[in-house]
C-alpha cells in the first residue's frame, strides 16, 4: 500500500464533508418548509455523526499516519482495514440515524466505530513505540498526539454511559445530556484540538523551525490538565454548586493563559511558518487561527453564570460555537495542512471558487447565527426572513465544498498517472 492509497482515503473523507454539508442544508430547509416523513432530530443525529466520524476522524487518522509513522509502519494492512471498516460503520449510521434515531441499528454501528477507534489507538501507539517517536525530533508534537488519542478514548465513555442511563429511565434528563456533552467536549476540545496542535508542532519540527521546547512543553501541560476540568463548563446549564463554576472557570482561565503562551511561541516564527503555505492555504490557516482564538475566549466567557445561562437558552450561540470549532478551527486547519503537504490543490479556478464559496457560506451563516442570538438577547426580535436567509447562505457550503472536491479527484488522478509513467520512461531510456 503506497501513499496514493492514503490520498484516496482523504478524498473519501472529503466526500463525506460534502454529504455533511448537504445534510446541514436539509436541516436548515426544515425550518423554512418541513418535509413530511423526515424527523429533524433523527436527521441531526446523522449530520453530527457523519461530521465527527466520517470527515474529521478519518482526516486526522490519515494525517497522523503519514506525519508520524515511517512508510514501513504506516503501510501496514491493518490501517487499511481500520479505515474501511470505520467507513462502513459511518455509512451504516448515515443510513440508519435518519430512519430510527438512536435505536438498535444506529447504536450498533456507532458502537462498532468506537471499537475500531480503540483498535487504531492501540496499533498506532504500538507502531509509534517501535518507531521511537518519543525520543526523536518529533517528541513534542507526539506528546500532543498521545494526548489527542487519550481524549479520543476518554470521550467514548459518554456514549458507553448512555445505555445504562436510558435503561434507568433517565433518557432526556440531566444525566443523559451531560453524557452527550462529555462526549462532545473531549472530542472537540480534546481529540480534535490536540490532534491539530500536534500537527502544528510537527510542521515546526519537520521544517527545522526553532522554537522554545521549554515553553512548548509547558503549553502542552497546561492545555492537557485544563481540558479535564473544563468539561464542567458543559454542565453549567444545570446550575450546579458554586465550586463547579470556580473549577470550570479556573480551567477556562488556564486555557486563555495557554493561548497567550502559544502566541508567544508562534508569533516570532510567523514569517517562517507563512512561507510553508501558499496564498490560499495561508488564508485558510489564518481563519483557523482566528477561530481557535475565538473558541478559547468564548469558552472562557461561559464561566460567568449569566453567560452560561444565556448560551444554554439561545441555541443560536451553541450551533454557532460548534460550527466555529469544527469547521472554522479544525476543518480549515486540516485543509491547509493537506494543501501544504501537496495532497490538496488550489491551482484550478474551480477549486478556488469552491473554497471561496465555502468560506463565504461559513462566515455568513456564523454571522447570522450570532446576530440572531444577540438580537433575541437584546429583546429586539427575529431578523426578517431569518430562516430563509440562513438557508440561502447555507447553499454555499455544499456547493462550495463540492466545487472544491471535484478538482481534487482530477488532481490526484493526474498525479497517479504521472507516477505510473515515470518507471516506463526510465526503462525505455535504459534500453536506449
Short account of what is shown:
The chain is mostly helical and 432 residues long. It has helices at 3-32, 40-68, 71-74, 77-100, 104-130, 139-155, 157-167, 174-206, 213-227, 242-266, 270-274, 279-301, 305-313, 315-340, 349-377, 386-394, 396-431. 81% of the residues lie in helices and 0% in strands.
Q: Your description of this structure?
A:
Helix content is 81%, strand content 0%. It is mostly helical. It folds into two domains: 1-131, Four Helix Bundle (Hemerythrin (Met), subunit A) (Up-down Bundle), CATH 1.20.120; 138-312. Helix 1 (3-32) packs antiparallel against helix 17 (396-431). It is globular, with a radius of gyration of 22 Å. It starts with a helix and ends with a helix. 43% of the residues are buried. Mean pLDDT is 90; it is low at 424-432.
